[in-house]
Automatic annotation (TrEMBL):
Domain ASD2: start-end pairs: 1-122
Family: Belongs to the shroom family.
Protein name in UniProt: ASD2 domain-containing protein
Family annotation (Pfam families): ASD2 (PF08687)
The UniProt record lists the keyword Cytoplasm: yes
Residue stretches spanning the membrane: none
Major localization class: cytoplasm
GO molecular function per UniProt: actin filament binding
GO biological process, alphabetically ordered: actin filament organization
Organism listed in the record: Electrophorus electricus
Domain of life (superkingdom): Eukaryota
Length: 134
């Protein structure tokens, strides 16, 4: 149960961090002449995400305390080698989730760049050769 909660909290933190980054990027892309109407929803979303991120951090702290409690119980039941294996597993589980999210983000970015490149090439080719999008 602890490992499942660790997965969920880690995924939640990564998701909220990614969403916050996208909102901050959108705010950065707005020029100084952007209307209050455009900026306000993004600022509200940022505020909401910061609150949610703080709550998720509290959940992570709770899971960390549970990790200590589970480790104490397991220390009485497992050999030192088994306990090291368990500790390594817990650390790697979280690290691999972070790495998986980073790879997914890179794939998504690459797909967006490829789509943009295809669209720009389609427009250039379509304009110069008289063809439409391919």
């Amino acid at each position: 149960m602890f490992i499942g909660d660790l997965d969920k909290v880690t995924s939640l933190l990564l998701s909220l961090s990614g969403r916050l980054l996208r909102v901050e990027s959108a705010l950065d892309r707005l020029d100084t002449e952007s209307s209050h109407h455009e900026r306000l929803p993004l600022l509200e979303k940022k505020k909401q995400l910061l609150v949610q991120l703080a709550e998720a951090q509290e959940l992570k702290e709770h899971v960390d305390r549970r990790e200590q409690a589970v480790g104490s119980v397991l220390a009485r039941c497992l050999t030192p080698e088994q306990l090291r294996d368990y500790s390594h597993f817990v650390k790697m589980k979280a690290a691999l989730l972070v790495e998986q999210r980073q790879l997914e983000d890179k794939i998504r970015l690459g797909e967006e760049q490829l789509r943009g490149l295809r669209e720009s090439l389609g427009l250039v080719v379509g304009t110069s050769l008289g063809y439409g999008h391919y």
